[in-house]
């Protein structure tokens, strides 16, 4: 099973593809889609949509996992911008007939670390450890966040997984 995790953002959208076979998880590809704040919003969204569509077609993933939208009352504009990026992601999944799963950040963190309020650095450490990758700062947090979504989805959708009970 190929799972694509996406950490949506208007500036940087991180993505990570893992393959799950029984209890083994292997990274297939990871990276990010960057847009320029100098571009119009419609061009930025088109870039996210187009590059994500290329990724979906190239890898023929079975599922996409994305973080549920969370808006802090002090930052409503940020939530709106994030919502635009998520809209482009949802559209790409719908047009390519790929099932989209949404998870609260706390559920992802709990599935990976046992703590629903783990820090981004703790999640990064867990992801890199699980995928047997070198633990350094060269991998952006947007990418490890995306990989965490894919890994957590693999646990949460696996009915035999103990993580299903969390």
Number of domains: 1
Placed side by side, the strands forming the largest sheet appear as 3-2-1-4-5
Q: Please state the second-level CATH architecture.
A: 2-Layer Sandwich
Number of helices: 5
Main sheet attributes: strand count, strand direction, barrel closure:
5 strands, mixed
CATH level-1 class: Alpha Beta
Structural class by SSE content: alpha/beta
How many angstroms does the end-to-end distance come to? 22 Å
Described by its quaternary structure, the protein is single chain
Shape by Cα distribution: globular
Strand content: 15-25%
How would you describe the overall organization of this protein?
- The protein is α/β, with parallel strands linked by helices and 166 residues long.
- It has a single domain, classed as Nucleotidyltransferase, domain 5.
- Helices cover 46% and strands 22% of the residues.
- The chain has a five-stranded mixed β-sheet.
- Strand 1 and strand 2 form a beta hairpin.
Please specify the SSE layout and strand pairing.
Layout: E1 2-7, E2 12-21, E3 24-34, H1 41-59, E4 63-67, H2 76-95, E5 99-103, H3 105-113, H4 120-130, H5 141-157
Helix pairs in contact: 1-2, 3-5, 4-5
List keywords for this structure.
Nucleotidyltransferase, domain 5; five-stranded mixed sheet; 5 helices; 166 residues; globular; alpha/beta; disordered C terminus
Compact overview of the structure:
This protein is an alpha/beta fold and 166 residues long.
